[in-house]
Amino acid sequence: MPLALVALARLTATPRSVYLALAATCLLTGAGATLSRAGAAAFAAGLLVLGWAMGPRATARTAVGPLAGAGVALLGLVPSLAITGPGRPLIAAIAAAAGLALAILIQRVPLPALILPAAGAALVTALIVIYRAPEVHGAVRALTHARFTLASPDRSGEAAAALHMIERHPVAGVGPGHATLRWIGPGGGLRIDRFDHDGYLQVLTDLGIIGAVLAAAFLACVGQLLWRARSDLPHLPGRAAWAGAAAAAAAFLLHSAFDFIWQVPAIPLTVGAIAGLAIPPATHGWHALPYPHQFHERTDCDATFPAR
Amino acid sequence: MERSAVGTVNPAQALQRGPRDAMIRASGIVLLTALAAAAFGRGAFFSTVQWFVVALIAAAFALALSARAFSVADLTSGYFLAGLLLALWALVRAAAAGTPGGGISWVLFGAGTAAGLSVGRRLDAASREILLAGVLARSASPWPGPGGSGSRCTSGRGACHRRACGGPPRR
User: Fold this and answer.
1) Which of A139, A222, B5, B147 could form a disulfide with B151 if both were Cys (CB 3.0 to 4.6 A apart)?
2) Exposed (0-12), middle (13-18) or buried (19+): which is B164, by Cβ within 10 Å?
3) Residues 36-55, chain B: which have Cβ within 8 Å of A?
């Protein structure tokens, strides 16, 4: 999700980039395919940061293509959602190709010219959905039942078990990898997990208050660096790089409260590297950085977007 | 400093900048390799990949350090110290709990992220473009996730819960 936001941010600076449009569409499709509610909330938070940093209109104009494309690609996954049924890779592949094409089409063709074709495509899609409704009905129903709700009994159970563990080992935690969370599930069965679906609780569980303070200091210092770097961004590519990093960081911080993404090092490492690309070195000012704040070429957006 | 000194550049300094720039760029490539290894290695969820990623990030940091890309101010900045202390505490806590290697994911979270950030912020324009393009290309490609493609809970890390054997963190 953070990388999708980075791709969108950079797309606002170079709106004609096919590579970025395709990358953003692929990333959004992949993120959507996980059906993660926390991921969706994190993306929404990141999009808000992006809108604040780059302007809501520019952000909306940039995001509409990749979002529509990802939506089409995700529709193609619906027939494969049923766990008991076979996958439908051909439908998924066709939808993915159509989604990618749509993202590029929206990027290249003025929106008013797309209204009629879009209405036609929506009609065809509706007909297909109605025709195939009995086949996918069960999958869609299961999906809406499981995903279109704020309830998450396992998360609640894990959090309660983790808090109980933190109570017993508040200062130094139980040690990394030594947490075994046990709780009674909604059906009355015993549930066991090794990780909280909450990075902040996980650090308290594993490393105690000492570790939590260090982690908080680490995140706060990175946030402070990123916040300071927002000033003195005269050119659009520089603003986009910063906005992408800030949006990615916001999405990461929110998502951390609902999934154990800190235990998948590829994610924090990538977010850290992205933040590094938007922060100047301690010994040099922005004036000494060739990128992104020394860009002087004029882009399409320079003429369109007001300077902020 | 380099920019403001246009017209008065010391030839000796200019000669030194070639290898230095090359090493800084190399650090960017190694960092990208580390991120790619982490991503393709099931998110670096498992310890074998974690050690490999630690080695690559250490190499990237060492390359940047040998190019004198870091000053004392860089290395004593808050985020770097906090990340390093978090990693050290995780190692101490894991050793005290009898599993010294257990803290490696926290080492990557603290020191690894701080090192990656430090290397990233020292890169030049071309290296930044390469790193970002590489990360985007890697992420847009199919990735099986921490649990592997179509994985079921069959590994020995736990039998009663999908996430206990490394299923993707989604819900």
Assistant:
1) B147
2) middle
3) 38-39, 41, 43-45, 50, 53
The residues spanned by each domain of chain A are 2-153+197-304
Q: Is residue B162 part of a domain?
A: no
Q: Which domain holds residue B133?
A: 16-140
Asked if A46 and A129 count as a contact pair (C-beta separation under 8 A), the reply is: no
pLDDT in tens, B47-104: 889 999 999 999 999 998 888 667 777 777 789 999 999 999 999 999 998 888 888 9
In a domain, B167, yes or no: no
Kindly write down the DSSP assignment for every residue of A185-207, as one continuous string: -TTS-EEEESS-S-HHHHHHHHH
The answer to whether B144 and B42 are in contact (CB under 8 A) is yes
pTM value?
A: 0.82
* Residue B20 confidence (pLDDT): 80
Q: Does A36 touch chain B (CB under 8 A)?
A: yes
Report whether pLDDT(A268) > 80.
Answer: yes
> Cα dihedral sign for A274, A18, A66, A239?
positive
Please tell me which residue of chain B has the smallest CA distance to A39: B170
Q: Quick count: other Cβ atoms within 10 Å of Cβ B13?
A: 12
Query: Do the Cβ atoms of A176 and B38 come within 8 Å?
Result: no
Bridge partners of A190, per DSSP, are A184
CB contact, 8 Å: A149 with chain B? no
Helices (H), A148-189: 153-168
* Under 8 Å between Cβ of A247 and A47: yes
Contact B56, B34 (CB under 8 A): yes
Tell the residue number behind the tokens 């912020």, with chain if given: B121
Query: Directed axis angle between helix B113-121 and helix A199-228, to 10°?
Result: 20
Tokens 């320079």 belong to which residue? A302
Q: Is residue B50 part of a domain?
A: yes
Q: Is residue B126 part of a domain?
A: yes
SS3 state of residue A260: coil
Contact (Cβ atoms closer than 8 angstroms) between residue A104 and residue A22? yes
Query: In this predicted model, what pLDDT tens digit does every residue of A15-69 receive, in sequence order?
Result: 888 889 999 999 999 888 888 888 999 999 999 999 999 889 989 988 988 998 9
Q: Distance between terminal CA atoms of chain A?
A: 26
Nearest to A172 by CA among A199, A201, A212: A212
